[in-house]
Design brief:
The chain has about 260 residues and is α+β, with helices and mostly antiparallel strands. The chain has 2 domains: about 140 residues, Fructose-1,6-Bisphosphatase, Chain A, domain 1, CATH 3.30.540.10; about 110 residues, 3-Layer(aba) Sandwich (D-Maltodextrin-Binding Protein, domain 2). It has 7 helices and 15 strands. The chain binds D-MYO-inositol-1-phosphate and calcium ion. Calcium ion binds next to strand 5.
Length: about 260
């Protein structure tokens, strides 16, 4: 099977992320249409509808490729290509009318992420990268910050939907980093957080219990902008992982904090 060009795959990722994000954005007035609620999460009718919009773009170009979406999966073992979709990352924000949310589409070949786009409609921001191209924001190259110490860093994190109570390592990491960095921030959309590390707005990111669709596209974008990702999958769950991300100066410090907290 011939390889598909990275530019072609990225173009389709951009169109798919745009289709999902635009659908949600244009239907904001339906943001309270809920299909399920949980202690720390909500599922919207628009989550599923928006994923369908992304899937339709991908299927029209690559009908045999596999899909791994937050809302639904259609694996296909006969192809090495798989699309990883989060139609609305930051659903809780979106449902409250808080603009910090995005749509994320990545494509993997033999399980390696090779191209991806994160689209944040309220900011008209398209973050893109493929493995042979620098990360870009709306077509212009972006780069991680050069902050040299955790003491001077602004680090962003999120609260997983599966917090396990007071023994959750994330809470201890939060405490340690709050005491040992300049600031810790919680914005509510992991994919966009990683893109804000990529564009140098934030210095680092950490979260436990996040899923591949939260970080597939944005992790590649961050790496192609000069970031280092450290990913620790959970033993019992292929998708739930701890993800650390920062420039090369800060990553060992983040790893050291994580190691103390598990
Ligand atoms: C969530 C957001 C949030 C993060 C959670 C994710 P969703 O994704 O990225 O920032 O803290 O861990 O699950 O559910 O809105 O797609
Ligand atoms: Ca989501």
């Amino acid at each position: 099977m011939n390889d598909i060009s990275l530019n072609h795959l990225l173009d389709v990722a951009i169109c798919a992320a745009e289709a999902a994000g635009t659908h949600a954005y244009e239907n904001k007035d339906r943001r309270k249409e809920t299909s399920e609620t949980f202690q720390h999460d909500v599922k919207l009718v628009l989550d599923v509808e928006s994923q369908r919009k992304a899937e339709a773009i991908i299927a029209s170009e690559f009908p045999t490729h596999g899909i791994l979406g937050e809302e639904d999966a259609t694996p296909n073992l006969s192809t090495p290509y798989e699309w990883v979709i989060d139609p609305i990352d930051g659903t809780m924000n979106f449902s409250h009318g808080f603009e910090y949310w995005c749509s994320s589409v990545a494509v993997r070949q033999n399980q390696k992420v090779i191209a991806g786009c994160v689209f944040a409609p309220d900011f008209n921001a398209y973050y893109t990268a493929h493995i042979e191209q620098e990360a870009k924001l709306n077509g212009s190259p972006i780069r991680v910050a050069d902050t040299a110490s955790l003491q001077n860093a602004m680090v962003v994190t999120g609260l997983s939907k599966e917090m396990e109570g007071s023994r959750e390592p994330h809470l201890e990491m939060f405490r340690m980093l709050a005491l040992n960095t300049k600031k810790v921030r919680i914005n509510g959309a992991a994919a966009l957080d990683l893109c804000r590390v990529a564009d140098g707005t934030c210095d680092g990111f950490f979260e436990t219990g996040i899923y591949l669709w939260d970080y597939a596209a944005a992790g590649l974008i961050a790496e192609q902008a000069g970031a280092v990702m450290a990913t620790y999958p959970r033993k019992c769950d292929l998708h739930g992982a701890t993800v650390l991300c920062s420039n090369e100066h800060l990553i060992e410090g983040l790893r050291a904090v994580y190691t103390k907290c598990i």
